[in-house]
Write a structure and sequence with these properties.
heterodimer, A: 81% helix, B: 256 residues, Rossmann fold, six-stranded mixed sheet, 7 helices
């Protein structure tokens, strides 16, 4: 593929966004919809500015819940995948149950989670973990099992121990898969946290996060503020995805084919 | 003269996977310490399987196999395997790749760094130590692979079509370098290839194998003295040997 000039990589999405905003204004104008049904982008930004203190504080609380659940999923996912990748018995025993866990709608489990983990942050972190755990485990396990057979033969020839084979070969070879799992989890974690806050409420003493703001603005019919909450959630999600994209770059850019090589 | 114990000794070895057809039948190959043996034959003649048996990656079904006076697995410490592709770990630099076998044997960091550096120097990669495999050409990758194999100073080197994917210029040059390395390190070599001229240039013995089931068909002795100059390839004697091997290969293809 030919490399696109950097200017275009910035310019194209900006132009696209501007066209979308223009279309939005057009729809509002020609449809005759009222502000509380379809606020204009300008009204949303104004609402965001007006509510900035609440939104920022809530976003901070949501970030804590999302980060907690994400880190839990990242570490437990790594550990679980190590177990699954190393042992055929474990894989056969646990895989169907992991699928069952993933198939069960989180909304069904929410009351049970609140009952066990309690309302507030513990419940929110648990829900976030539950939503972002599976893609990490599934990707990492796949990665651990996709090691090049010639590399395995090389290690066997050198009389490498199982532990050496795992740490020096299978885990590094699985890193692109693990990071792909983290990327999916990073998009899911803020969603999970907001969903958790919406369901669990703000009994923890904080602001209740963006999820509680959604509930609150909705009951007050502050529709532009609701859109502003969506915008804030979006920005939070971007920060998560950007952080994982940076991690991905830091781990892989020197050796992996998904990055263009800097020729010498 | 006292008889020298063979480096590799097959006795009536047969090999098959499960209840499948025989892959190898009645192999009696013996390799001596100063041998460079090439195995050549049609695909499916089991020549790569012979290397797998010697390295202990795959067990024989019937018959015996002794490597360096013991079982294949116990001889692993003193042999090295060079694969068809370079099998470098893409997340390690050339230097770290060359260090890998010593690292797996838990050698001290300073020792393994020094040995890997020395071997990379020897294969002409002193300037490419910090490059990752994807920054190296096919020929350079194969040089790292050779350096990696030689860090352990193996007595026996097994090479499974190592230069098959390279262009002819690079292949010829690496053939010459391999022989030069052997002048220094004195390893016994077993070399699987599809190229007749490569086999003749490198070896003192070319073993031609037949397929279905894999078996030894014949052998051509190549008595040109080592070190062999690149110009040897143009000599009539060389071409006569190439013809001799080619004719054996034609016989094999006619019968199988």
């Amino acid at each position: 593929m030919k490399k696109m000039p950097t200017v275009w990589l910035w310019l194209l999405p900006v132009v696209c966004g501007l066209l979308f905003v223009a279309l939005w204004y057009g729809v509002r104008r020609w449809s005759g919809l009222q502000s509380w049904i379809l606020p204009t982008p300008g009204e949303i930004v104004a609402a965001a500015w007006q509510e900035r203190a609440r939104l920022l504080a809530a976003a901070g609380d949501t970030a804590v819940g999302a980060l907690g659940g994400f880190l839990l999923a990242a570490t437990l996912g790594f550990g679980t995948a190590l177990g699954l990748g190393a042992s055929r018995t474990l894989r056969a025993s646990l895989w169907p149950w992991l699928l069952v866990l993933q198939m069960t709608p989180v909304i069904v489990l929410t009351p049970i989670i609140v009952l066990w983990a309690g309302p507030g942050l513990p419940g929110i972190v648990t829900i976030t973990w539950l939503i972002s755990f599976f893609p990490i485990v599934a990707n990492m396990t796949q990665g651990l099992l996709s090691t090049d057979m010639n590399h395995v033969a090389l290690f066997r020839m050198a009389n490498a121990s199982r532990l050496q084979e795992l740490w020096l070969l299978r885990v590094p070879a699985a890193m692109p898969f693990y990071l792909a799992g983290l990327r999916i989890a990073a998009t899911l974690a803020p969603i999970g946290a907001i969903f958790g806050e919406y369901m669990v409420g703000n009994s923890s003493g904080g602001t209740g996060g963006l999820g509680f703001l959604v509930y609150s603005y909705n009951t007050q019919i502050k529709i532009p503020a609701l859109f502003a909450t969506a915008l804030t959630s979006c920005l939070l999600g971007f920060i998560f995805v950007a952080a994982v994209a940076w991690l991905n770059w830091a781990v892989l850019h020197k050796w992996h084919d998904s990055f263009e090589r800097d020729d010498h | 003269m006292e008889p020298v114990a063979p480096i590799v000794k097959f006795s009536s070895l047969k090999k098959r996977y499960g209840a499948g057809p025989w892959i190898l039948e009645d192999i009696n190959l013996a390799v001596a310490a100063d041998d460079f043996v090439s195995l050549i034959g049609p695909s499916g003649c089991g020549k790569s399987t012979v290397l797998k048996l010697i390295s202990g990656l795959s067990p024989g079904t019937e018959g015996g196999l002794e490597v360096l006076g013991t079982t294949p697995k116990q001889a692993r410490d003193r042999q090295a395997f060079i694969f068809q592709d370079a099998t470098l770990l893409p997340w390690l630099t050339a230097q770290r790749n060359a260090e890998l076998p010593l690292r797996l044997r838990r050698a001290a960091a300073a020792e393994r760094a020094a040995k890997a550096r020395a071997m990379l120097d020897l294969v002409g990669l002193a300037g490419a130590r910090d490059y990752y495999p994807r920054q190296l050409s096919g020929g350079m990758k194969m040089r790292v692979s050779i350096a990696r194999a030689l860090t352990l100073s193996p007595q026996l080197l097994l090479l499974d079509e190592p230069f098959g994917a390279l262009d002819e210029m690079t292949r010829n040059r690496l053939n010459e370098e391999l022989l030069a390395l052997r002048e220094r390190s004195r390893f016994t070599a077993l070399f699987v290839t599809h190229s007749v001229s490569e086999a003749v240039f490198l070896s003192n013995r070319v073993v031609v194998m037949a397929a279905n089931p894999g078996r030894e068909h014949g052998e051509v002795r190549v008595d040109f003295p080592y070190p062999r100059p690149a110009a040897l390839r143009g000599s009539p004697e060389f071409l006569a040997k190439v013809n001799e091997v080619t004719q054996l290969l034609h016989q094999v293809e006619a019968t199988s």
